Fold each of these.
Amino acid sequence: MRITNHGKINGWVSFALDHLQKHEDRPLVLHTLPASKGKARASVQDAVAEEKTSKGLHPSMATIPRLVSVVEIIKREYLKTMDPALAEAGSLSGLHQYNEVGDLADAGAENAEEGRLESLARALQGRNHVQQKKMAFMRVTLSRKPLPALAASGATYQSPAVRRLSKTARARLKNRARKAASS
């Protein structure tokens, strides 16, 4: 799911919760990568020119704080909407989170090495600043089960939050289980 500047957070959260309830085995991936418009786009440079605002950061970088907010809301609401009957040993477990941060380099520049060396030489002479043509992005994967392959590929891992059930809630669960066993 792509997070943008103009989307509704409520819509993303409800879609995510619905996805996580319906598809237990499939993780949910939220990201700020630029939209791909088919194979017609020649390079990342075209994406930068197309989506860059007149001032400030590229949208894929500017939406990273929004992505973090959406992920935290999803995790909190997921714990609230879980059925207490699923609780084991008096606690409810949340979502496993894997974070990846990276950048998309300018793939369309010809003679990139020569251009980079020339820019570096000019910067060292103090004449011009080196112009960077990279876009940062963030990708967050939420899943109900651990994904060791994703952690091995370099993503940072955040363990699930655990919601403890109160003493009375645990007693109610035990009573329900007794009634269900006697029926």
Amino acid sequence: MRKIQLSFLLLILVNFCSFGQDGFLPLDNQKKIVYTDVATLEKSKDVLFQNAQKWVVKTFGNYENAVASEDRESGKLVLKSYSPISSPSFEYLRYTLTIDCQPNKYNVTINEVEGISKSQTVTPLGKKQNDEIQEKEILSKTESGKKKKFIAEEALNQAKVDNDQINQAMYSLLASLKLSMTSDGDM
């Protein structure tokens, strides 16, 4: 059973990571960064909620620090937390993660994502980062001088690495949750 779960997680990670390799962040209709997942599982709302709680403890350690609000009756958990990231511009990501458990189904949304640099500067993430990728792509294609073209390409690569690392961190979080939600026993 454990091999099946690990294979499932690997498949999810490969699928999620390949989605974000273009250097762009997923945006909602208000041009704000958002990651979502919906899963149908043959489990009661209470079991899904308990699995979500166990995942929070396993992933974040201190349940009380991570959970901003919980409503067992409605099946909703809202987390405000941080995750480390290895990108040229950011050391951590701060975000809101909402898990909504229903009978045989759960929805998860990650939004309000902010990048935190080593100097503790907080940057809201969203449309601006995608626009910068597009601008840098155009600049690197139109620059005629060797040195300026090299600098433009380096700036483009750094921006893409930042966004790809953000995507990888958030999709890994979603994949980890999915694995825990499908679990039948102790995690």
Amino acid sequence: MASTVSQQALAEANDRLTAGTATATAAQLATVADEILSVAGVLRAQPALRRALTDPSRSGADRGELLRSLLSGKVSQVTVDVLAALVSGRFSRPAELLDVTERLGADAVLSSAQKAGNLAEVEDELFRFGQIVSGNPELAITLSDPGAPTERRVKLVEDLLKGKAQPATVRLIEVALEGFGGRSFEGSLTRLVELTAAKRDREVAYVTVAKPLTDADEQALAAKLSDIYGRQVSLKVDVDPSIIGGVSVKVGSDLYDGTILRRLNAAKQAFSK
């Protein structure tokens, strides 16, 4: 988890990114996002560079100039300026620089999707892809295998989603394959769904039901949860017949489990005592 000081560096870099891309098109923003994520890839592969760019014995301006000398002429000026601002900040440990650079790149991908007007679609596509993966053990093992070349797993995702998902969705799944913020592939996808929802100023509610909800039921549940949490809620519904009936809702660390399966398990435990 990023520290308070690295979060401050990320916030300042995001402000610089917003200002520097205020008039950019969605495609231009996507290019900047790709450049930032490419730099994250270099940082992942070069621990010595992470240490140099977070060296507390060097001033922030010095670290920023080092970054500029490495990137100038290789990426856009916006990307250079944003990342120079990032490394000028303070970090508790070198690994945090990689985490916040990945986060900055993911934020840029989301901004490009927002500008293109398909952020809600990206959110749903990320969630649905996660469901597809969790429902296919062979695919889950293949995509989650850190020992398999990332390029091969990226190619598999691109082949699976060609013409079926937004470019931003595919790019974020590629970010998840790298282990976003040090998470597992599944955990990375979940976190990216939540960040996408947050970009839309929404809370994510993971809902498990035994059979599909009607549109009216979904709207009523979303309205009730919105009243509870004081903001709009984005429902992510998973149909699982094994729960028999009822509904389970998870929002952040809050879990409301009203499934028949839970009640049966509770009854079994009570009888076994």
Amino acid sequence: MRRYRFLLSVQWVILTLVSIALIPTMIRLGFWQQHRYEERTARNNLVSSALHAEPVPVERLSTPGHTVTRTERYRTVTATGTFDTAREEVVRRRTNSDDEVGFHVLTPFVLTDGKVLLVNRGWIPANGAQTAFPRIPAPPAGRTTITGRLMADETTAASGIKNIQGLPDRQIMLINSAQEAHRLGARVLGGYVEQTGPQTDSPEQISDPGTEDAPLNYAYMIQWWLFAAAVPFAWWSLVRREIRDRASAAVAEAAQDTPEETAPAAV
């Protein structure tokens, strides 16, 4: 066991402790990536299921004051009513599919029973000063039927967007049905709808939500666990190399200490 005494040196004690600590750390990181994979897969399945579900009237899923749930989000809904363009607003700092900054157009949609549905009609560019109310293409006039994706009220916690106060008239940062109910003095259905039909070129309608890259998290999970398994093998390889290096050094030192034999003198 004398050849392993070097493991008690400060350098090797530190290396061994670091190796021991790395193994559970990498295993935990693998489990974290597994959790992210399962979470993203569940979210993708939920979104796909909602998008492919049969359209239903919006009032089957939402009522005034209702909080849109995870299973209701992205459900395709229909509604019949009239756009109230006189009281529409724009949502600042929104981007389109090309990452251009502009506005989302939020128009109250008065249903046949008098309730109001908030409809995000899509994106328009922010041409000119953002302090002025932009020119917005008009929606269909009169009674019409729309389809769209049901969305939950926006919050700073969920979106990361700060709800700035003191904005120009008819400009907002977040879409919130409770605040809009107070502004409009009407019974506003909870959440809002991203319009998908009838199709329009302007405003530019919002594209379907993309899928999250769950397979990437699965690959990271396997990677971390392979790293954890490789640590003891790497440590043992270093130990064996150190033993070989020390044995070679000992042989070389012994060779230097051995006196060379003197050749016999010629007669």
